[in-house]
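Morning!

This is the sequence you dropped in the shared folder:
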Amino acid sequence: MTDIAIAIHGGAGTITPASMTPELEQAYKNALETAVEAGHKILANGGTALDAVEHAVVLLEDSPLFNAGKGSVFTKDGKHEMDAAIMCGKTLAAGAVAGVRSIRNPVALSRAILEYSDHVFMSGYGAEEFARKYGIAFEPEDYFFDALRYKQWRDVRDTDMFILDHTVDRKFGTVGAVALDMEGNVAAATSTGGMTNKNYNRIGDTPIIGAGTYANNKTCAISCTGHGEYFIRAVVAYDISCLMEYKGYSLQQACEHVVMDKLVHFGGEGGLVAVDAAGNVALPFNSVGMYRASKQRNETAFVGIYKSE
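The structure's back. Tokens below.
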């Protein structure tokens, strides 16, 4: 029996103690702990890595604290456009969506695409039509309303600016999870609401297999958070897998090389969560902070926000 492991993230960026109230910090940590424990429980009960990452991400999507699902930021036209992806490391099957509106849990739609479609990637109205066919939950626009995100969008909606974060600090809002189950299979899932005031139906790295999301039993599972344009151009998630498969890097070595060296020199900011087929976990980030949590075997869950943790 393989040692089980799960790791999640809720975004990265300039996240400091000074930018938080004690109450808000505890709220973030509670949400992260709840999600990682729920995913771990599925694994401990013999469930699949796919089920664990989907459920963990659903819980993060349902929280208004994170820029995904319910907490998604506003686009240029005052709407919400969400992206998500999920991938199975055993079969390399994947499902992804981009630019969907009113979907309560975009990661659940991604899972439906993986399970029921011959396609990998769907977008916009077509993805929503597919969601209706398979009973994926929709919500009215006011479900996604958040006063703080609305104020930040209102401040820039009449400009050509887009904001990479959804707080007053520089923060890349994405949620994600990776897991290893008892059968030795890994999986990854990622979900995001994108950039505040984004225009032209911009799509980031989150739903792009190999950029923001990737899983392969031979190597690892990866879920990224950061400035998506850089993660796309650097093909971050697949690059880590390749370093492990073709150059013999350990998970930690591959993650450190890509996140702390390649991305830094390239100008990319952010981080990721990763797990390999042996149950090792890596949580690297080159930003000031990253909302993150992990739990291996039956150990106590780790929850962190700042570099010092």
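Headline: Residues 5-306 form a domain with the Glutamine Phosphoribosylpyrophosphate, subunit 1, domain 1 fold (CATH 3.60.20.30).

More detail when I'm at my desk.
O.
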